[in-house]
Amino acid sequence: MILVVGGAGYIGSHLVKELVEKEEVVVLDNLSTGHREAVDNRAIFVKGDLGNVDDLLMVFRSYPIKAVMHFAANSLVGESVVDPLKYYENNVASTIMLLKVMMRFKVKNFIFSSTAATYGIPNVDMIDETTPTAPINPYGRSKLMVEQVLADFSKAYGLKYVVLRYFNAAGAHKSAVIGESHDPETHLIPIVLQHLLGQRDKVSVFGSDYETEDGTCIRDYIHVTDLASAHILALEALLSGEKSAEIYNLGNGLGYSVKEVIETCERVTGLKANIEMADRRPGDPARLVASSQKIDDELGWKAERNLEQIIADAWKWHQNQTY
Ligand code: UDP
Fold first, then answer.
1. How far away, in angstroms, is 275 Cα from ligand 1 center?
2. Residue 260, ligand 1, Cβ within 6 A
3. What's the burial of 253, exposed, middle or buried (CB within 10 Å: 0-12/13-18/19+)?
4. How far apart are the CA of 162 and the centre of ligand 1, in A?
5. What Cα–Cα distance (Å) separates residue 151 from each residue in 72, 112, 119, 166, 272?
6. Are strands 168-170 and 160-166 parallel, antiparallel or unpaired?
7. Contact in structure between 269 and 193 (CB atoms under 8 Å)
8. 323 catalytic, yes or no?
9. Which of ligand 1's atoms lies nearest the C-alpha of 203?
10. Is 265 a pocket residue for ligand 1 (Cβ < 6 Å)?
11. Which end of the chain has fewer CB within 10 Å, C or N?
């Protein structure tokens, strides 16, 4: 059985939907930002808190867990700057507690959701896993700290792990029964689509004087279903013993500017957006684009869905959003 912590969240729920086809799954989630409706009903759901050792012990005593996939984290850069305690407590301290309980129950396989924010403001066009990490905010630091803990636990206790550094997760399940639903929503694609549905009066473009071709920030958008398939390959590589301590970037390898994303949303939906140029958002690097060559070479993973597909699937979800 696989324990998916944070399996009611955006990325976790998409992973669970794929994973239940292959494995028995138990989801632990406190529903602080996740949605019970997002959890596939073939998975067992336990409402509980990662920060509560009794909840963890109960899950590990009740189910024969062979691997843990950990998605439960706070992930807003701005919030992490004003409330770093929340990030170090929920993202670092609670993860250490989870690892401690795993060690006690001799569960040695761990897949960890990390982020492009570990790279800070990198000085390269294509970020690969050898690009130095230098996070510029508590969110990125909290993820990097756990990565370092994992490396030490691997050497000392034989923990086996794969760290997956996501670039910009977006899109929705092709069935449109699950998708992205954050409150507040801060991400570009859902904001543009909500605007095109009449739920917001405009889209603010945060900065148009960056050193990029059209002056707006460039990001690497990756379909949430492609992220899910990478997790399944990583899990198989751990369980087969093929991998024991790896870090992989997950992106499309293609950069799109904020303006290009808005234009693609307009093309896919056939609607016109009302755009306003706004100030830069603090902490936004001009360009973040991944090389995912390593996971392609080692596990045979490639992103299969392009920006149009991402936006088309997100659009289906937003038109029919149920939670
Ligand atoms: N962005 C924007 N307007 C918005 C939301 C985001 O211009 O209403 C920009 C943001 O500054 C960044 C890009 O869109 O350059 C992607 O931001 P998002 O929050 O989706 O992801 P991030 O890259 O911060 O993880």
1. 14
2. no
3. middle
4. 27
5. 20, 12, 17, 19, 48
6. unpaired
7. yes
8. no
9. 8
10. no
11. C
Give me 15's structure tokens: 């992973």
Distance of alpha carbon 71 from alpha carbon 11, whole angstroms:
7
From the list 10, 119, 139, 256, the catalytic residue is 139
Residues whose CB is less than 8 angstroms from the CB of residue 307 and which lie 6 or more positions away in sequence, other chains included: 221, 252, 254, 256, 260, 261, 264
* pLDDT by position in tens, the chain (length 323): 999 999 999 999 999 999 999 999 999 999 999 999 999 999 999 999 999 999 999 999 999 999 999 999 999 998 999 999 999 999 999 999 999 999 999 999 999 999 999 999 999 999 999 999 999 999 999 999 999 999 999 999 999 999 999 999 999 999 999 999 999 999 999 999 999 999 999 999 999 999 999 999 999 999 999 999 999 999 999 999 999 999 999 999 999 999 999 999 999 999 999 999 999 998 889 999 999 999 999 999 999 999 999 999 999 999 999 99
Going by C-alpha positions, the residue among 62, 18, 10, 63 that lies closest to residue 40 is 18
Report yes or no: 127 and 291 within 8 Å, Cβ to Cβ. Answer: yes
Q: How far apart are CA 89 and CA 135, in angstroms?
A: 18
List the residue whose alpha carbon is closest to atom 15 of ligand 1.
217
Q: Which is nearest to 219 in space by CA: 119, 72, 79?
A: 119
Who's near 218: CB < 8 A, 6+ residues apart?
212, 255, 256, 257, 286, 287, 288, 289
Residue minimizing CA distance to atom 18 of ligand 1: 187
